[in-house]
Specification:
Layout (H helix, E strand, L loop, with lengths): L1 H27 L4 E8 L4 H16 L4 E7 L5 H12 L5 E5 L5 E3 L1 H8 L2 E4 L4 E3 L61 H24 L3 H9 L3 E3 H7 L4 E2 L3 H7 L4 E4 L2 E4 L6 E4 L4 H9 L2 H20 L5 H16 L8 H18 L5 H15 L10 H27 L6 H4 L3 E8 L2 E6 L2 E6 L9 E8 L2 E6 L5 H4 L6
Parallel strand pairs: 1-2, 1-11, 2-3, 3-5, 4-6, 5-8, 14-16
Antiparallel strand pairs: 6-7, 9-10, 12-13, 12-15, 13-14, 15-16
Helix pairs in contact: 2-3, 2-9, 3-4, 5-6, 10-11, 11-12, 12-13, 13-14
Length: about 500
């Protein structure tokens, strides 16, 4: 029995080793991995920063594949170009996948799809409508590329044809083109010229991306000029995308063995048995993404305008102006007028101004605490993640500045607690000593000054008095405190 128990224990130990060591070897093996990123909603500075950072890190780590799942109505041009630059600079192949079913990749999403090394869509999805529009408005009704010979749809009457003589000289084919003015094409107006420049620039940009990866450049130009849109099946037939995949597993299965060209050269994908790693935006990036939403951006700008106007109507109220300035900074960031790198510095600057306001126009700590909070947030996000200032250091600095502000606040409150320092009102309620007295009048000493005084009761030299009223240059006083029992028996000077 002992032998059987020993053999059973050894067998269990060996089975445990066999189960543990392969698992450790598999988890410790840094083999091929696929990083899954996502664009869900408008293309904003927040998700542009998130995608650019994760694409750069995956490229530096030599990951096998980067997949960007897209469901977006479009977004800001600068944010879109930030993502496209990161995709084009990646040594790891990047695949865009419009999913889930029912999703879309419109406007800026189409440009990102054309920049990717592999472009795929799920069934029942659509893409296109890449015409650039100004933020807050749609394009004008008139197309700047239409012929200007028509006036609101009415054609100019053509001149009657003149009879041509048989002996008339034939036009010289090698002759110089007609002088300017024979084909009178009116120049574009300023607004039309600007829109034409934007559209032509966008067309050239997306055609360059299409030619880089061998996709349909003509349809891409049509999507920009005419806002054309297509379904996933039409996109596959037109050569806009490379494939249609039901889900992520189907996508990885279809692109296995496909060769793509990256900045590091051609690379053949091996997507079987890949380790899938989903990377989500950080909490701060989610908050900034919420702020960058166009609806939220409009609300922020409205609050900024309202707060600043209220501060102008009621100077010194501080709180509406501070809220308005903070909302203005966040709104400018949401509209990408203020770059993300400058946002922490701007918040620190507003915080310093609020602390100065607290020092010169005390608000009982409200402006000072708000300024400290803004400075702390700005200091934390001033540097990238790898160089970020320690929260403990920021806490110590804020505590020191907060202690200084507390001392100033206590001093200010104390200065407001006493009465007037000079004038007739300043001498009331002050105490002094009787210097010379006769009947109900005499002289008193108050803080080193000798005043003429009167009282409703007789006083003696040395009695403590308190000022009740001032009548011209005569003080009306009363005895501050009656003599104690021991003082009554004390000898007095002659």
């Amino acid at each position: 029995m002992r032998i059987w128990f020993f053999l059973a224990g050894m067998l269990g130990f060996l089975c445990g080793l066999g189960a543990v060591y392969p698992a450790k070897a598999q988890s410790a093996d840094p083999t091929r991995e696929a990083v899954i990123l996502k664009i869900d909603g408008p293309v904003t500075p927040a998700n542009a920063q998130y995608l650019a950072r994760e694409i750069g890190e995956a490229s530096a780590a030599k990951k096998e594949l980067i997949v960007i799942e897209i469901d977006t109505p479009g977004g800001l041009v600068d944010s879109m170009k930030t993502i496209i630059k990161a995709v084009l600079a990646s040594e790891t192949p990047v695949a865009t996948y419009v999913s889930p079913q029912g999703a879309r990749s419109a406007s800026a999403g189409l440009y990102i799809m054309y920049a990717a090394h592999i472009s795929a869509m799920a069934p029942n999805t659509n893409t296109g409508a890449a015409t650039p529009v100004e933020l807050g408005g749609a394009p004008g009704e008139e197309n700047p590329f239409e012929e200007k010979g028509k006036n609101r749809g009415e054609e100019k009457p053509s001149a009657p044809a003149e009879p041509v003589s048989e002996n008339a000289p034939k036009p010289d084919e090698n002759a110089a083109p007609a002088a300017e003015g024979t084909d009178k094409t009116p120049p574009l107006a300023n607004s039309d010229a600007m829109r034409a420049k934007v559209i032509n620039d966008s067309v050239a940009y997306i055609r360059a991306l299409a030619e880089e990866h061998g996709r349909n450049a003509d349809w891409a130009e049509k999507a920009v000029r005419e806002a054309a849109s297509v379904t996933s099946r039409q996109a596959l037939e037109l050569g806009v995308i490379d494939l249609i995949a039901d889900d992520l597993d189907d996508l990885l299965k279809q692109i296995d063995g496909r060769t793509v060209a990256t900045v590091a050269g051609e690379k053949t994908l091996q997507t079987q048995n890949l380790l899938i790693e989903r990377v989500e935006p950080t909490l701060i990036e989610r908050i900034l993404g919420f702020i960058a939403n166009p609806n939220v951006a409009v609300i922020l700008m409205s609050l900024a305008t309202t707060g600043i106007i209220i501060e102008m109507w009621n100077p010194g109220s501080i709180f509406p102006g501070a809220v308005g300035v903070i909302c203005l900074l966040l709104g400018l960031y949401a509209l990408q007028v203020l770059p993300y790198n400058w946002l922490p510095l701007a918040l620190m600057g507003v915080g310093a101004v609020l602390i100065a306001v607290e020092a010169y126009s005390p608000t009982f700590g409200l402006a000072g605490l708000s300024g400290l909070g803004l400075i702390g947030v700005g200091m934390y996000f001033l540097f990238p993640d790898e160089f970020r200032v320690s929260p403990s250091v920021i806490g110590v600095l804020l505590a020191m500045v907060g202690a200084l502000l507390a001392i100033i606040l206590v001093a200010v409150v104390g200065s407001r607690s006493h009465g007037p320092m000079i004038g007739g009102e300043a001498i009331r309620r002050r105490e002094g000593v009787v210097d010379d007295w006769d009947g109900k009048e005499g002289w008193v000493i108050i803080e080193g000054e000798r005043w003429r005084a009167r009282s409703d009761r007789p006083l003696r030299p040395g009695d403590k008095i308190k000022v009740v009223e001032i009548d011209g240059l005569v003080l009306v006083v009363k005895q501050a405190k009656g003599p104690s029992l021991l003082e009554a028996f004390a000898p007095r000077a002659a």
